[in-house]
């Protein structure tokens, strides 16, 4: 089965959703991705990426009831689909194979 | 704490997917609240605005990619048509002018009107996107046109700023339309959001028609006077442009007054709105007819449109609530006084005229503020509209 191509930000967002579980909504994902990648992302960048991943069938989302700490607005909660999990495994496999070549880039 | 309404409205105007609106605005509200508690309200508000500005390019790109081929063709056609209209309007009313400022003002007004009309007529979400697309397409168009239209003179450097000014004004025009749409839809929300109301579209359309009917009728009736007079005397000689400007002025004032009538539920509130609108109407009329500083051709008179912009933007930010309107009217009076003082220092126009008219209009705007204050004390307004609930432990 062909897994869709993922950009760097898409992969980071997908991994954040996989990691965060109950906190996998825009704000949590934005913080996680910003921390991992070392730069602050805008809420627009994160949601358009989440939306794109959902269109690719790698994520699914649903709306929570309105929450007072959000000014009465609801959250959009995200979860990996089976295709999303496969895409992540595939990305890890490809990365591991590339690192098996032991490129001389020095310590991380 | 409350989020910046202008920033929120701007961002909402770029969100094409209705499912994402609550998610995005809610995330920003939640994190702004957390940041306000840890580092203070000012930095939190600045963070919110930065997030809005940085999100816009992503949302614009997302909107563009989400469109079907048919929608893309329609959008390109609408934006191209508006672009041609803006450029031809600028050439028609500013292209023959000997000075750069007039050319730029004509282009700016057309760009703002173009942005407004695109945002106003966008059928579904993201009304700001076509207006921004117009602004972006005006950048190369204005660079090309300035080479053809630029009159030689010391203010040619202004033309270098033209692309930025036109982009900002077309976005501002779109922003005003988006906020007006938001205010109107909030006003219509009881019927529009009720799923048990099958005729909601008709109700909204009917409401909009009622909103426009009386102002258009008033404009048509009033414009008949110069039209008829022109048939009998050469003393009255209006051009098509004069009719368009005066018609727009009357309809704009009338629609705003209709909105005020719907928003206010006391005579005090309506009187306050009436005084404010009559003052604004008079200010534009005097400025266009004879000019407060010297003649109407004096470039500095353009500053008075900035005074009206202060009042207009202030009113939209206040959502026509009486207490907010007090601040908007005081700000308008201060802006007007500031322009008057600047004119006196710079020696623009006759000091007697400038002082007299500055005092008169400032007092009118302050009188309106006082009337709004009285209306607020009486608990006027009760202005509908969807408002975000305050944060649970909100400040």
Model description:
Chain A has helices at residues 8-20, 26-37, 43-55, 82-100, and strands spanning 59-63, 76-80. Chain A is mainly α and 108 residues long. Chain A has one domain: Orthogonal Bundle (Arc Repressor Mutant, subunit A). Chain A has a two-stranded antiparallel sheet with strand order 1-2. Helices cover 78% and strands 0% of the residues of chain B. Chain B starts with a helix and ends in an 18-residue tail after the last helix. Chain B contains 14 helices and no strands. Chain B has helices at residues 5-12, 18-39, 41-66, 69-94, 100-121, 128-149, 157-187, 189-192, 200-232, 240-263, 267-289, 303-317, 322-346, 351-377. The radius of gyration of chain B is 22 Å and the shape is globular. In chain B, 36% of the residues are buried. The longest helix of chain B is centred in the middle third of the chain and has 33 residues, at 200-232. Chain B has 395 residues and is mostly helical. The interface between A and B is medium-sized, with 24 and 32 residues.
Please summarize what this structure is.
The complex is a heterodimer of chains A (108) and B (395). By secondary structure, chain A is mainly α.
What labels describe this entry?
heterodimer; A: 108 residues; mainly alpha; Arc Repressor Mutant, subunit A; 4 helices; B: mainly alpha
The percentage helix of chain B is: over 70%
**What is the correct CATH architecture of chain A?**
Orthogonal Bundle
Number of DSSP-assigned strands of chain A: 2
Cα distance spanning the termini of chain A: 33 Å
Tally of individual domains of chain B = 3
The tally of structural domains of chain A comes to 1
Apparent shape of chain A = globular
What value does the average pLDDT of chain B take? Answer: 78
CATH C-level class of chain A: Mainly Alpha
Count of helical regions of chain A:
4
| Helix/strand order of chain A | HHHEEH
Largest sheet of chain A: 2 strands, antiparallel
What's the oligomerization state?
Answer: heterodimer
Alpha-beta classification of chain A: mainly alpha
CATH topology (level 3) name of chain A: Arc Repressor Mutant, subunit A
Name the helicity range of chain A: 40-55%
> How many extended strands of chain B?
0
- Strand content bin of chain A: 5-15%
Distance between the termini of chain B: 5 Å
The portion of residues forming beta strands of chain B comes to under 5%
Radius of gyration of chain A: 15 Å
């Amino acid at each position: 089965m062909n897994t869709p191509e993922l950009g760097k930000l898409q992969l980071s967002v997908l991994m954040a959703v996989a990691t965060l579980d109950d906190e996998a909504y825009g704000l949590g994902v934005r913080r996680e991705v910003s921390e991992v990648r070392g730069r602050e992302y805008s809420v627009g960048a994160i949601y358009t990426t989440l939306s794109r991943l959902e269109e690719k069938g790698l994520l699914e989302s649903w709306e929570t009831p309105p929450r007072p700490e959000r000014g009465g607005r609801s959250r959009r909660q995200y979860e990996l689909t089976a295709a999303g999990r496969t895409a992540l495994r595939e990305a890890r496999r490809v990365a591991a194979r590339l690192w098996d070549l032991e490129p001389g880039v020095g310590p991380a | 704490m409350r989020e910046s309404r202008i920033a929120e409205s701007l961002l909402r105007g770029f969100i094409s997917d209705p499912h994402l609106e609550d998610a995005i605005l809610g995330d920003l509200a939640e994190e702004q609240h957390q940041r306000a508690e840890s580092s203070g309200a000012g930095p939190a508000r600045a963070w919110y605005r930065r997030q809005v500005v940085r999100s816009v390019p992503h949302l614009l790109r997302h909107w563009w990619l989400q469109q079907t081929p048919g929608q893309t063709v329609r959008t390109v056609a609408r934006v191209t048509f508006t672009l041609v209209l803006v450029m031809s309007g600028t050439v028609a009313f500013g292209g023959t002018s000997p000075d750069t400022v007039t050319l730029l003002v004509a282009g700016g007004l057309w760009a703002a009107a173009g942005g407004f009309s695109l945002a106003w007529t966008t059928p579904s979400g993201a009304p700001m996107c076509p207006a921004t697309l117009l602004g972006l397409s005006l950048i190369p168009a204005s660079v090309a046109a300035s080479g053809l239209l630029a009159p030689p003179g010391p203010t040619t450097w202004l033309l270098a700023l033209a692309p930025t000014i036109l982009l900002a004004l077309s976005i501002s025009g779109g922003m005003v339309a988006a906020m007006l749409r938001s205010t109107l839809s909030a006003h219509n929300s009881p019927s529009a959001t009720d799923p048990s109301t099958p005729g909601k579209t008709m109700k909204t359309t009917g409401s909009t028609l009622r909103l426009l009917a009386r102002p258009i009728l008033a404009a048509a009736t009033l414009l008949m006077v110069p039209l008829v007079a022109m048939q009998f005397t050469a003393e009255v000689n209006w051009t098509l442009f004069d009719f368009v400007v005066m018609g727009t002025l009357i309809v704009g004032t009338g629609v705003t007054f209709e909105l005020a009538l719907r928003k206010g539920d006391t005579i005090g509130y309506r009187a306050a709105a009436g005084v404010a609108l009559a003052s604004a109407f008079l200010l534009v009329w005097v400025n266009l007819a004879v000019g407060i500083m010297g003649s109407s051709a004096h470039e500095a008179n353009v500053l008075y449109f900035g005074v009206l912009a202060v009042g207009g933007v202030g009113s939209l930010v206040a959502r026509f609530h009486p207490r907010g309107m007090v601040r908007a009217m005081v700000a308008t009076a201060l802006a007007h006084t500031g322009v008057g003082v600047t004119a006196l220092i710079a020696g623009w126009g006759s000091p007697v005229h400038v002082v007299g008219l500055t005092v008169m209009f400032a007092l009118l705007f302050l009188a309106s503020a006082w009337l709004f204050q009285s209306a607020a004390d009486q608990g006027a307004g009760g202005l509908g509209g969807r408002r975000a609930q305050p944060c649970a432990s909100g400040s």
